[in-house]
Amino acid sequence: MTVPRIAVVGRQNVGKSTLVNRLFGKRETIAHDDPGVTRDRVELEAMWNGRRFGLVDTAGYLHRARGVEALAGQQSLRAIEDAQLVLLVVDVASGITEEDAQLGRRLRRVTAPVVLVVNKVDSRHEEADVPLFHSLGLGDPIAVSAQHGRGVGELLDRVVDLLPDAPKASGRDTARIGLGEGEPDEGVSDEEPRFALVGRPNVGKSSLFNRLVGEERAVVFEEAGTTRDSVDALVEWPGAGQIRFVDTAGMRREIRVQGVEYYSFVRAAVAIDRADAVAVIIDAPEGLTAEDEKIAFRVLEAGRALLLVANKWDLVEDKDRRFKQLTEEATMLGRATVIRTSAVHGQGIARIPNVLLDLRRRWSGRASTSRVNELLQEAQGANPSPRSSGTLHYAAQVGTRPPSFVFFGGGRAPGPGYRRYLENRFREAFHLDGVPIRMRFRPRTRGRSR
After folding, report:
1. Residue 212 falls within a domain, yes or no?
2. CB-based contacts of 256: which residues, under 8 Å, 6+ apart?
3. Please, where are the H alpha helices in 122-204?
4. Who has the most CB within 10 Å: 107, 125, 270, 394?
């Protein structure tokens, strides 16, 4: 059964993201005192009393919005159209503003049920002002404090009552997640492939993301840093079933990151850690910069498969020379595959899912112990291990995601040069281009003398 969606809407700075985090059970979306932090539709899956539903955090409604704020507002309207239930969040301290009234008039015309949520009711003192919100014409308001969890249980009970077709969860998923009771669920199935798009600001990640998912899910604007939170979407891909793509905020050097950007950076790093494979988007006319290399190394260090996507390829003048240069530079990044794309024209984008799926398959693969040892003997026959370390006698693959190998024998572990040699031999033999390889060495132990 399809999980019903709940759109959380309201003007800027009323606490929508804080409420979504409270309903989800942990801090998953960026909540900040600055207005207008959320710009894209951020979707999470939550549950209450064994009922599953989707939460959609949206940008704050702004009257007569322009530029990026207008585009963010369009995302909010799409969320309302797609939702089976809408939560209109208002601020008890501010009272009813003109923007609240405008949203109220719009929501009175939608077919989905609407629940009016009066936020920031942190104590009984503020409860006296809650009845004033009846004038919005959206029924009885529910008073909550998203920051402290006050009234959230009552809100979730109302939500479940209005979504009778919400599919049931099972096992440990029946915990009362909204109040933080029990272990929070990750909100994402372990079965579906999960791919993240990362890169520097303004390289075209959101444009590629929208092309991949087939709709305008992420706000695209000429100003760098438009995306602030990680935005994900499930896509039905022919022959592969459901795939989850995650768009992320532009990653800058950590020492330059502060304020809202810090939380965006953390979310992007988490998206890498949760992904099976990661596409690092680079600006093709600029080539592979030092910042791009750092991001790619971060992916490999996290144990995730790596794909390099050279976007804006339509703007490259000497295409043959640039592609040769990128391919050579990718050798130092786990020999990652390079795909040329243009998000504007759609060039090369259809290749991305299949390449990522193949990367995921090889990242999850396991080689037989006999083949691993056969390859080890071949490698040492072509290039014997240094005398200082001694001969390696035996090896086995002990893990996947990423592939991990243990080598036994020798007096001590070989140096970096010979390790790179073995890694390259294993990468070539097992078709692990773009896949990080973990290698451990266990030298033989000498018996104690009596």
Report:
1. yes
2. none
3. 124-127, 152-162
4. 107
